[in-house]
Design goal:
388 residues, alpha/beta, Leucine-rich repeat, LRR (right-handed beta-alpha superhelix), nine-stranded mixed β-sheet, four-stranded parallel β-sheet, 17 strands, 26% helix, elongated
Length: 388
Amino acid sequence: MLQQFRFTNADAHDHHSHGGDLDEASTAMLRRVIQKIGQTSVNTTLLPDLEALLDDRHDGEDHDHSHCDARRLALDWLANEDAAASHMPADEYDRALLQRYALSTAYFATGGEGWTVCSRKVESECESDGARWLSPSSHCAWDGINCKGGKLSWFDLSDHGLVSESYLPLEMTLLSPTLELLWTSDNPKLGGALPAWIGEFQSLLSLGAYNTSLSGLVPDSLYTMTKLNSLRLYKSEFEGSISPEIGNLKELKWLWIHDNHFEDILPDEIGQLTKLEGITLHGNGFAYAVSESSQDEVEDEGEDESKDFKNASEQLVDIIPSPVCDLLHRGLKHLWTDCEKDSLVPNLKKKFDEKQPDFVVKAGKRACSCCTKCFPTEKRKRQQVAIS
């Protein structure tokens, strides 16, 4: 998906000039930001980058130049353009400074001047001038932002036309202590990978990054976000496997990861997530667990029927581990995955044990014997060809 758009860092800043060197006022603002961060308990790796910017030291390693430009632009805006500095009481503005810095950096890092919704440019649609980003109103009134007690709790820039090759800037971690929702969905030109610093958002309840160009592996740090109840990464370019550490996310209710490039066998540990209500897995490359099944309890039910069961029993090839299937007896309502056409046959063991599933997977076929919705692989491929 990322390659289709061929966007560059220049696209993210096509409505403004390069940040350039910091002027005196911006340098003073940078010092103020560094001082404020030092007074907080936020666990962030941001300080070394800001100190390097202050000293104008760039070793060429591990620096995201588009985000470095965004920092300069944000500091310049805070120092020279932010009218809220004169409208707000000094102590109130001081308390809001780090949040306004983080948000303005995110604005410039994602091509805010070209957003389709609530850019500071009047060409973009917006319900009110006060809801426009970088307006002199409280940042809590900006579109997609909600606050509790003056602290950010909600960051939702879905379908805003974000453009970035590296997700969001590190400055976002300044919001981590109180942020409960982080959504950047429906932004096809939002690329890069989920960074390891996403794990700093220990208060996060909902993470949405679906229908984007985000790619790469799910970082291990995500599995430490134990308050998450909603993880929606579908219709993007994620790959790799789902870690057994997902079993740490005990509060998870919604796991929507369909239409990506995930692979390997699903971990049994998903079955530990007893609060799950919906799982969507289709459109990936998950491997299928193979298990042997015995016919000891099966009586002779006729040649054709016994043959079907024998074929099904020789090799059960199922995408869903049995601990995950067991969640359907708890609160799980939606379990969606792939299957091949005509892949299930009646389970003859059902006659001897009512707890047995109604169907089992036919030998040589791949499917899910317990899913609530099955997406035939062949049909999905034909649909993709028609769309393209």
